[in-house]
Amino acid sequence: MGAQSLTVACGALALCLALATAANPGFVVRITQAGLDYAHQHAITVLEKELAQLKLPDISGDFRIWHVGKVQYEISRLSLSSFHLPYSRISLVPGVGLQVSISNAFAELDGNWRVKMHFIRDHGSFDLRVENVYIKIHLKLGSNTSGKPTIDTSACSTRISNVRVHFSGKFGWLYNLFHRAIESRFRKILESKVCESVAKSVRSELQPYAQTLPVTAKIDAMAGIDYSLVAPPTVTAQSLDVDLKGEFFSLAHRSAVPFPPLVLALPPDHDRMVYFGASSYFFNTASFAYHAAGALVFEITNSVIPKGVEFHLNTSTFSAFVPQLENMYPHMEMKVRLSAPSAPFLNIGPDGLSLKPVVDIQTYAILPNSTLAPLFLLSLTGNVSAVIDVKSGHIVGSLKVGRLKLSLKRSDVGTFQVRMLQSIMNVLASNILLPRLNAWPRVLCFPERLAQGFPLPLPDRIQLSNILVGFHQNLLLLGADVQYHPQGRR
């Protein structure tokens, strides 16, 4: 292979690798500045508690005083009584991560001192106040090999402008003579310990909490949702975007989805703390997974017809439209089996969610020995729309069926006028089929019963409020404010 051919081959390989690793998400979570501010409030409360528990080492040394001589000292049992962070903010740093800036922080602590000078020994206590503490923290966001989010401290700096120490005791005046040296040592120790505490708090509190974001969500015994990150979080000047795979899959056997996700672009909305963007791909993978599992099958017999509906599923009812049934299968109950020959695909546009499913309707007569005799096979097409909402962290919805159209695919009882069955199918659809669809766990594109919904990717102890539901091309956009509950679980 020549040098030029080798170059072309390497370039093609690099392009393929780039395309393979740059998969479009099926689901996007956007955290706005308002959402970050809310999370920051709770994080600062945790950090205050961590800093108030700082363990400071004992300090010892010696110094000389004019006309007095060498003085040896020891400072021990340093105990922080408080550490306050009254002013702080969190900022988005595009392409880098997050920055937390803390200003005018202050702390108070006390301890014991001991002194030795010639043959004189004494001890006492002291109070120390640290003022005008400035802390700057840089947080790096990423993802691990399992697709979970990661967060770590990439940089931290602490600057203490003022340290004041007051010693009490018989020779307290002696310590007050060299307070600058003591305060300098306190300053260096505290500056180091503060950043150590910040890094520890991020590792022990923030990172484990970020890991509670579910990578997979089990829907039922048949399917789950893959919410793993397809790339590290993206930070812009306005928001933090987290791209998720957003793909339903079979729990028994996961197979590749035969269609790719389209580019998913969220509109620049920032009125809520968090936004969830679900693409058509997200919903259609549910349809694909359940269809492949053979779950898009629905059977109707007299036993499922609600009481109060003046309709009986038997050959006597149908013989008014298919006369030959009266002679071939007189006064027999019937079974209707509905199945989707292919996975129904959902479309999302500015007007909402809609789909045009194709359903095969196979009818049977139930013979006296309980075996089934096939009667005729119909094809049903129609317009179906979905009403979407969010409840308890789940996307919920209900279906509305529009105009239905029937056609005959096969008949085992001879010819008949299919259009005459339209009224019966309208009764089945509005009074039997639709209510069952909205409560059935495995129909169309909704994996759990529609009234219960399926879970959004939320970390622990989060509840949503002030829900907004919007529709765009290829995008269902959900906006919400967030409430964090430290003591409970969502």
Protein model, in words:
- Helix 2 (33-52) packs across helix 4.
- The protein contains eight helices and 23 strands.
- The protein has 490 residues and is an alpha+beta fold.
- The strands form four sheets. Strands 14, 15, 16, 17, 18, 19, 20 and 21 form an eight-stranded antiparallel beta sheet that branches.
- A hairpin with a 2-residue loop joins strand 16 and strand 17 (352-355).
What fraction of residues sit in β-strands? 35-45%
> Separation of termini?
61 Å
**How large is the count of helical segments?**
8
Q: Roughly how many Å is the radius of gyration?
A: 35 Å
- Helices and strands: which structural class? alpha+beta
Helical residues, percent: 10-25%
What would you call the shape?
A: rod-shaped
Main beta-sheet strand count, sense and barrel state: 8 strands, antiparallel
Give structural attributes:
490 residues; single chain; 23% helix; eight-stranded antiparallel beta sheet; six-stranded antiparallel beta sheet; alpha+beta; rod-shaped; 44% strand
